Amino acid sequence: MKTYADALDRIRDVVGPKGWIDNEGDMAPYLIEPRGLYQGACAGIARPASTDEVSRIVAICSDTGLGITPQSGNTGLVGGNVPMFSEQDGIIVSTERMTTIRDIDVANRTMTVEAGVILADVQTAADDAGALFPLSLAAEGSCRIGGNLATNAGGVQVLRYGNARDMVLGLEVVLPDGRVWDGLKGLRKDNTGYDMKHLFVGSEGTLGIITAAVLKLFPKPTTREVCICGAADASAIMELFSRINGVLGDSITAFELFNRFAVEITAAHIPGVRDPLDDAHGQYALIEVAGQSAGLKEQLEATLGIALQDGIIDDAVIAASGAQGDELWRLRESIPEAQKLVGGSIKHDVAVAVSKVPEFLERATKMVEAEMPGIRICAFGHAGDGNIHFNLSQPEGMDAEAYLGKWGHFNRLVHDLIDTMGGSFSAEHGIGQLKIGDLERYKSEVEIDLMRTLKTALDPKGIMNPGKVLPPSA
């Protein structure tokens, strides 16, 4: 059996004692992902402190054929961050020690950061500089910017600012042979051939290791308003979105949808969370608008007032302060945690055109309820950009293990429906290990062939995050 003892020794020499972990107990947190769906193994954890160290590690792995699983904050939900090696033939390369904010250019509205900077720290540094970095998601206190870019993270402000790919101007990447591509340019116009950064954003570490990035900064809003509305169904909620979009346009930073079941379980199980509306409603919308205009609240109030008069929505409450706005957001953000407390959950991270959100929810609901009477639908998400987390909680009294055994069956039903509607079976979480079969089923042969061509060209030895994203070759 091939051994890599010499390669591992050389890697240990590169990173030093602080940069190498091979103790079983210390390795454990790196080998499992947050939902516990995947448990991995590897020969050790390399924690380089610089791009040069990453480059030297990757060069050693390229020379010897030692596999690499890049890892940043290890918060991914599809298993792309979990190594699929034996205990000898691969390592994790973690960027968690690369935490330097190299530069903030206020005039150019850019920030250059290393891959291991925690997302919340990027947000704070931007705020301290009088600017905004708008990427925001539930794991922002522990996820790191390298992983956010490698997975093209979404979050709650995609509607206004786009995905992670839309917030990056330049990258520094260590290629699979150890060479470093320095693309750290803070340019908004650079029409000089292929836009290389977009090869690596969203590639989930299969084409190289992102070590640094030039991020876009945005003007800091001076006005913020948050409200929650209740309506009979998703069609009414999306009609409200159309109306608000027509009045407030780019001032809308978030438009979140969630159903009654989501509100009930969150109010029941999360301390300090309550339903802010007096009566129960079939669907809810959390809306945030922000900008520099002092008239946003008046425009929002007027639009909601007309929607109430027209019977589009049944009730609404606007936060009277920033603290109350945070309380409304806490209801929305606590839904995933509440769902864990009411039994097994089969999850779907899907997207359709915004215009088709009501149709999807209606058809998907009828389909799964017919398939399993008593199943409880916890549907929530970023309706303003068409991304819905269509999660299914087990029927009350059903054995959790037996229910979760139906995961693949329900995924197939929901993803087949999404495919017929021209949607996506993975809106923001990526492919990793979990959704390779879906990619093979729903992507065309041409798309998969193009992806394999890129992978072979950049990583001919197949050492970068093997077993992720692409299905095995026939």
Topology of this structure?
Layout: H1 5-15, E1 20-21, H2 24-27, E2 45-46, H3 51-64, E3 67-71, E4 90-94, E5 101-105, E6 110-114, H4 119-128, E7 131-132, H5 145-150, H6 158-161, E8 168-174, E9 180-183, H7 197-200, E10 209-216, E11 218-219, E12 223-231, H8 234-248, E13 252-259, H9 260-269, E14 283-291, H10 296-309, E15 315-318, H11 322-333, H12 335-340, E16 345-346, E17 349-351, H13 357-371, E18 376-382, E19 387-393, H14 400-404, H15 407-420, H16 436-442, H17 445-458
Parallel strand pairs: 2-4, 3-4
Antiparallel strand pairs: 1-2, 5-6, 6-10, 7-11, 8-9, 8-10, 12-14, 12-15, 13-14, 13-18, 16-19, 17-19, 18-19
Q: What this model shows, in words?
A:
This protein has four domains: 5-94, Uridine Diphospho-n-acetylenolpyruvylglucosamine Reductase, domain 2 (2-Layer Sandwich), CATH 3.30.43.10; 101-219, Uridine Diphospho-n-acetylenolpyruvylglucosamine Reductase, domain 3 (2-Layer Sandwich); 223-335, Alpha-Beta Plaits, CATH 3.30.70; 343-420, 2-Layer Sandwich (Alpha-Beta Plaits), CATH 3.30.70.2740. It is 35% helix and 20% strand. It has 17 helices and 19 strands. The strands form four sheets. Strands 12, 13, 14, 15, 16, 17, 18 and 19 form an eight-stranded antiparallel sheet that branches. β8 (168-174) and β9 form a beta hairpin. α8 runs antiparallel to α10 (296-309). The relative contact order is 0.11. The model has no long low-confidence stretch (mean pLDDT 96).
